[in-house]
Structure formats: structure tokens, C-alpha cells
Amino acid sequence: MNYINALYLAVLQGLTEFLPVSSSGHLVILQNILGVKKVPVLFDLILHLGTTAAVVLFYRIEIYWILKDLVQYLKYFNNSKMRENVAKRGNLKLLMYIIVANLITGVIGFLLADRITSFFYIPKSVSVFLLVTAVVLISTKFIKTKDKPISQMDYSMPVVVGLAQSFAMLPGISRSGSTISAAMFMGMERVDAGRFSFLISIPSILGASAFEYLKTSSEISGISNGIYIFAFFVSFIVGLLALKLLVAFLKKGKLYVFGIYCLIAGILSIIFI
Fold it and tell me: Rounded to whole angstroms, how far apart are CA atoms 163 and 262?
């Protein structure tokens, strides 16, 4: 792993982690193109830390209020009136939705981890899953969403989104694309769907990356600390820009545009890889 390869992989991670085109699928394809047969797990974790930091910065206000209300709720746990006042703000409800979605993803991921991992070594399967992502994203153009805010959704929403996030563990299935689409199918307003998708990504991505790292922590990567630091900041900066771009597309109702890209990428990868 040199700085050039690290740059390519970090830029790709930053772009595709948030743009609904499947980061895992594109990384598998680029690894084959660059001849990097296996990215060290620690390097992959560093890339995910960079993009997760971008989410935290972008949604820092939402995260601040969730944590603040959680602290206040625990502080006034024995005061029912104060607890109710805190709960009315809706941030704790959002926190519960985040927990429910990730519990479902975590259980399914734990049970099917080995089967899911096997697909990463079959480039053609990535191409097929990219086509699946294309169908999902293009279908959002025809959704007649009820434009409900997160606060008006019931617990069926995080259950469905959690299942969608589980499906997105397959390489070529976009995590952001599948979860945003699932939330929209459930009637959520599209920008709120994006917000929820990225908030649930924080524990999901960190948990999955940490799990993989613990399984293979004894591996020696041979990568210098400088490359790790470089990759972190590249994925962070590019990820932040990609996140802003996706939110702009969501506001315009143009999520389906990324489906067209996935359709082309899937077909080309089937032909040439």
C-alpha cells in the first residue's frame, strides 16, 4: 500500500460511503483494478473512521441534542413531569429508533457474517448487487411519499430500515441508498430519511468495522502511520463534501439519478471484470 493507492481508496471511500452507489462494491472493483487483492483491515477501519467523523461533524447539532436530552432524562429520572418535558422534544424517540434499527442490523450481521463475507471475493456478485441498488434507487422517482417527519413515524420504520441496512452489508448494495429508500417507502420526508440514514450509520459502521478488526487484529499490515493519517483526512474531507452533495440531491428529489449511475456501473463491471 503506497500513498497513491491510499489516495484512490480514500477518495473512493469518501465519495461512495455517502453517495448511494455502494462503497463496498466500488472498493472491491477498484482493488481488482489496482491489483490490491486485500485491503488490510486496519486501513479499512481508518477509512471508515474518517467518513464517520464527517457524519458526526455534519449532524453535530442533532447529535448534541440527542445526547443532551439523554443526560437530562437520566438526571430527572425520578421526576415524571421533567421526564415528560424532555421526551416531548422527540430526541429520545429518535435515539430509540436509531437503537432499534442497529439492533436488527447487528443481529442479522452477526448471524450471517461469514456468508456475507464470501460475496466480497466474487467480483461478479458485486456487479449484480449494483444492479439491484440501481433498481431500488430508480424506484424512488415513483414513490408518492407522505412527507412525514421522523417524529411522526412509528416503530415499524426503524425495523424496516434496519432490515434494509442489513441487506446493504452485501457488496454492491448501497447502505445509504437502501436505508433512505426504505424510509421513503415508509412515508418519511426525503431529507429526514437521509438524516436518519446517516445517524444510524455511526454505530453501524463503527460496530461492523470494530468487529472485523477484532477478528483479524493479529494481522500485520506493514502500512506506515503516515499513510493511515493521510487516508483518514482524505476520506473525512471527501466524505463531508459527498454528504453535502447528497443532501442537495435529496432536497431536489433527485435520488434516482444515482440509480442510473449504478445501472451503468453494474453493466460495465459485468462486461469488463
Answer: 21
Is residue 21 within 8 Å of 177, Cβ to Cβ? yes
Residue with cell 456478485: 125
Domain ranges of the chain: 3-29+41-272
Which residues partner with 188 through β-bridges?
148
Measure the CA angle with vertex 142, ends 136 and 148; round to 5°: 90
pTM, to two decimals: 0.88
Q: Cell numbers at residue 131, please?
A: 444492479
Specify the amino acid at residue 39.
V
Give me the helices (H) in the chain, please. 3-16, 23-34, 41-58, 60-75, 80-88, 91-118, 123-139, 156-167, 175-185, 190-215, 225-251, 256-272
Query: CB of 267 within 8 A of CB of 131?
Result: yes
The model's pLDDT over 16-54, given as tens digits with 9 standing for 90+, comes to 888 998 777 777 777 677 666 666 777 888 888 999 999
43 and 228 Cβ atoms separated by less than 8 Å: yes
Contact (CB, 8 A) for 51 and 239: yes
Cell numbers representing residue 134 in the block: 440501481
Task: Tell me which residue of 187, 184, 159, 164 sits closest to 175, measured CA to CA.
Answer: 164
DSSP H stretches of helix in 17-90: 23-34, 41-58, 60-75, 80-88
Cα distance from N-terminal residue to C-terminal residue, the chain: 22
Coil, strand or helix: which one is 188?
strand
Cα separation, 140 vs 180, in Å, equals 9
